[in-house]
């Protein structure tokens, strides 16, 4: 008997030692799996988040990224109009972020407000109720945390304040707004209290010179999102828009992901280092156990060789035992790795300022395949020395040494 069957039979000779070895390999495999998922998971998660609503290009003030600073675009309505007239652009819409306040019984609750264009929004998913419509200046959308904080439900009227003077605790604008819907904001961190208004209303409430009384407000926007008709032409369209609007920052999702990747280089380096350590631990565990096993069985191996069993057969037996150890430990390691990845993801995504939709550990078929191949190669490498030791053992000398 050779291969996995022989490996399993030999492992059963020392069940406790084999179980401890498999547990050690499982821990190393779980760490390897987690590090492979971590090495590129957050980038893929970020890319999916940006493309979740199908907008491939973001335009923001020069030198900034969307919502990275409080800088805003002036005359954003003209830019949006020009973009919508572009034959390659399917949709374009502005969005504005700023602090708002809601009056509760005896205080003001601080909220983060999004001004959105309902026809071209990339910021939320409607959970309950109905969406805002273009030109709606009396409606508001709430996140679940915001609804809880101000004790509001669908259909309620809430009073929203803007342009707050922190010294006088006086708000420049107060507007009663009806709760149209409950939404999930895609870029919010856990527990963030966010609300959404139409872009026009948001500009009026937050603009110091704006229309608290209905007058014109400056057409500001934190960013503009663009959906390109042909996904394959996004780089060319982004380059053309960059030349057309030299005073604006034009980024495709691919460029934003590259920027994000640069900011998280340390995560990849940490993942590579810990992944390499876990592989080394797996190799040492398998190699040590097989070497001990071969040394204990030298007399048996010499006897088999003496009655005609080939060296190749002995080598296959040792390699089969190593493969069995690798497969059992790897299978257990996958389960352990998935559990620990879920636990660690919960810790990392709870960092302040990170969108709750971001995930650090994203299981991808090619990543899992890469981890499996690396583990199999490590197991094969670990079995080479014990296999050579078994095949090279001198028959006569070994039998004399093993004789009672």
Concise summary:
The chain is of the alpha+beta class and 404 residues long.
Descriptive overview:
The two termini are 28 Å apart. The longest helix has 38 residues, at 311-348. The protein has a six-stranded mixed barrel with strand order 2-3-8-5-7-6. The chain has 404 residues and is an alpha+beta fold. The protein is built from twelve helices and ten strands. Helix 8 packs antiparallel against helix 10 (311-348).
What letter string, H or E per element, gives the SSE order?
A: HHEHEEEEHEEEHEHEHHHHHH
| SS field, number of helical segments | 12
Class computed from helices, strands and strand pairing:
alpha+beta
Overall pLDDT metric: 84
Q: N- to C-terminal separation?
A: 28 Å
Largest sheet: 6 strands, mixed, barrel
Give the strand order of the largest sheet, numbering strands 1, 2, ... along the chain: 2-3-8-5-7-6
Helix content: 40-55%
Strand percentage: 15-25%
Overall morphology: elongated
